[in-house]
Amino acid sequence: MSESKIRFPWKVTVEDEFKRNPKLTQEDFETFKNWYKNEKHLPPIDDEMLLHFLHACYYKVEQAKVTIDFYYSYKHTMPEFFENWDINDKDIQDVINNAILSAPLPACTSEGYRVIVCKLNDTDVAKFNYPVCVKWLLMSCIHAIWNQGTQNGYVIVYDATGFTMSHLFKCSMSTVKNYINYGKNASPIRVLKVVFINTSPVVKKLLTLVKPFLSKELINMMSFHVSAESYFKDLDKSNVPEDYGGEAPPMLSLHREFVKTISSARQWLIEEEKIKCDETKRSGKSKKEISPKIDTSFRKLEID
């Protein structure tokens, strides 16, 4: 069903989105919306949320049906990412205040893509909490679609500076696989590129270990740069953080401003966390076991 009981803070309405996206048709949207209403296990949501899934799937209605079903199913089967969305939660505060820097660049690229840069703020392995880092990125994603509406595409840049084998060993195989599956199957945004900068042998090792879980499409989206300059040289200097030789504020400033912005939506994010599917109402096979746990650690794989 659609029509959320709570109206989320959309700054770009459905009407605005139709003006923004000429390839979006009323017929496709109504077809998707009517299908959703008849899926009793899916939660009530705003029309804008429906539209984002349709946009993420390039207006392919059948693909959007599968994607949105995965999204709300994963909110059950991936609690490490989708529970405790209170920004004041201690684990989240530890991550955003100590472990990582994560923020969008000030402006879109010339192609209209929004670039999000993520890096370690402190290389102390004890402060690295991979599931909560992913949770923060997913919270940021939802806030972005509330705040900015649909985008031509997103580029996710991971700066591998300071990422060591010890960090890798703290990541469970199941958690990494879950994040990959989310990216493959359930994202409400168009992620067009995944860029790794300042890469090291550790990044190559990680790719080798997770490659069996990656689709050909995901592999083709990835690019690797041994330096930051080789990626940022193609961007306008005014849009590149000072840390990387540009004229924009440094990553720490961008991150702090981003955290402040998302913190203002704290109550909305808490409400968003509650919106999940009800598998007892699903007609057909339940997806409760869609993401079985794999206890293998990267440390064990390395030893093997």
Topology, element by element:
Elements: H1 14-20, H2 26-38, H3 47-56, H4 61-77, H5 79-82, H6 90-99, E1 100-104, E2 113-120, H7 130-148, E3 153-159, H8 165-169, H9 173-185, E4 191-197, H10 201-210, H11 216-221, E5 222-224, H12 229-232, H13 251-263, H14 266-273, H15 298-303
Helix pairs in contact: 2-4, 3-4, 6-7
Assembly state (oligomeric): single chain
Main CATH class of the largest domain: Alpha Beta
Radius of gyration: 19 Å
Contiguous helical run count: 15
Q: How much strand? A: 5-15%
Count of discrete domains: 2
User: How much helix, percentage-wise, in residues?
Assistant: 40-55%
User: What low-confidence regions span 5 or more consecutive residues with pLDDT below 50?
Assistant: 289-295
Distance between the termini: 48 Å
Largest sheet: 5 strands, mixed
Tell me what the CATH architecture of the largest domain is.
3-Layer(aba) Sandwich
CATH superfamily of the largest domain, please?
A: CRAL-TRIO lipid binding domain
Mean pLDDT: 92
In CATH terms, what is the fold-level topology of the largest domain?
A: Phosphatidylinositol Transfer Protein Sec14p
Got a strand count? 5
Helix-and-strand structural type: alpha/beta
Order of helices and strands: HHHHHHEEHEHHEHHEHHHH
Give the neighbour order of strands across the main sheet: 1-2-3-4-5
